[in-house]
Design brief:
7 helices; alpha+beta; 6-stranded mixed sheet; 343 residues; 9 strands; 53% helix; Immunoglobulin-like
């Protein structure tokens, strides 16, 4: 009776003496990633290796029972599933130290539970880690996105509002310039139509830009929206030049200065856009705001310049018309008298 009771104690002493047959892992319950992560590292660290030789080791990574990656140390052979062509050991040199972590592209790693199985000679063990995608900003806190709606770090909400307001302010100012042309300037109707078409095109692009930019979902779509905010602004310089050309016949020095100021603002906004799309999380919207603000100021100055120029032109034309009308009447009367004399 005493011998069976002593068996567990003997087994425990034997395990302590000759080493446990079970590999022990440093446990990590889960790994989090967001849209800014281009790669994912799934940790797997064995803390009681004996041989410390990767030739005596076999590593297998699985998801839902399907082998995604394996390393056969005896043959120095690697297997990768076609779904994860980028999968590899974090460092094969560190495998002998017990580090069997897996590194792969974030786009290839699906959320879920992964298992790491390590074998060293006749000892083996398994650990599991859960991969999660977290979202911040307008997508909510720690909401797992669906594959069709991958959320990530979004643009700052208040800065997005400021950009949208500046964009629509620029649109309104251009329509105001069109109104000045229609009411104050005697311009050919065809030219007015060209200006109206240009304003309409930019207005449509502005609406599309804001819809894409301020949406609270995919960060890629938000960046595309920001591109629609900045890039079509080049149309404004062409439109402004055309407005000056058809109204003032020839662009004055002041007109060129205003267009130059607009170009300067566009360059600032373009630099801000380039910095935003290359950074993750997206930052430096303030540079885009500064560029749009410069363009809005230029557009306001151009509106005032157009108003004063058209008013001055109209004032000059009115006295000439008042003089021309009596002269035309005298000329008509003279011609009538001459015809009666001839008769």
């Amino acid at each position: 009776m005493g011998l069976p009771a002593a068996c567990p104690l003997l087994l425990l002493l034997g395990a302590l003496r000759y080493g446990s047959a079970q590999l022990v892992f440093s446990t990590v319950d889960f790994v989090e990633r967001d849209a800014c992560n281009t790669t994912v590292v799934l940790p797997c660290h064995v803390i009681n290796l004996k041989e410390h030789n990767d030739s005596n080791m076999f590593v297998s990574w699985k998801k839902q029972g399907r082998v995604l990656f394996s390393f056969n140390g005896a043959e120095q052979r690697i297997y990768r599933h076609e779904m994860v062509p980028s999968a590899n050991l974090l460092s094969q040199q560190d495998l002998s130290k017990g580090i069997a972590s897996l590194k792969l592209k974030s786009s290839e790693a699906e959320d879920g539970n992964y298992s790491c199985e390590v074998t060293e000679l006749n000892r083996e063990g398994e650990t599991k880690v859960d991969l999660r995608t977290v979202t911040v900003g307008s997508c909510g806190e720690e909401n797992a996105p669906t594959p069709d709606n991958e959320c990530g770090r979004q643009f700052d909400f208040m800065e997005s509002v400021v950009i949208s307001v500046l964009l629509f302010l620029i649109v309104i100012i251009y329509w105001a310039q069109l109104g000045v042309i229609a009411l104050k300037c005697e311009t050919v109707h065809k030219n007015k139509t060209y200006v109206a078409v240009g304003c309409a095109i930019f207005t449509v692009l502005a609406v599309i830009a804001v819809v894409l930019f301020v949406q609270g979902g995919n960060i890629t779509i938000s960046k595309v929206g920001l591109g629609f905010v900045v890039l079509p602004a080049v149309i404004l310089m062409v439109l402004q030049y055309y407005i000056f050309k058809i109204v003032l016949v020839d662009v004055t020095r002041k007109g060129y200065v205003l267009i130059g100021l607009q170009f300067f603002g566009f360059i600032i906004a373009l630099v801000g856009f380039a910095l935003c799309i290359s950074a993750c999380p997206p930052e430096l919207l303030s540079v885009v705001i500064a560029g749009l603000a410069v363009m809005a100021v230029e557009d306001l100055l151009a509106l005032l310049y157009m108003y004063t120029s058209c008013s001055r032109m109209k004032d000059h034309q009115t006295p000439r018309k008042a003089v021309e009308e009596p002269l035309n009447a005298i000329k008509t009367e003279t011609e009538s008298t001459a015809e009666m004399s001839d008769g």
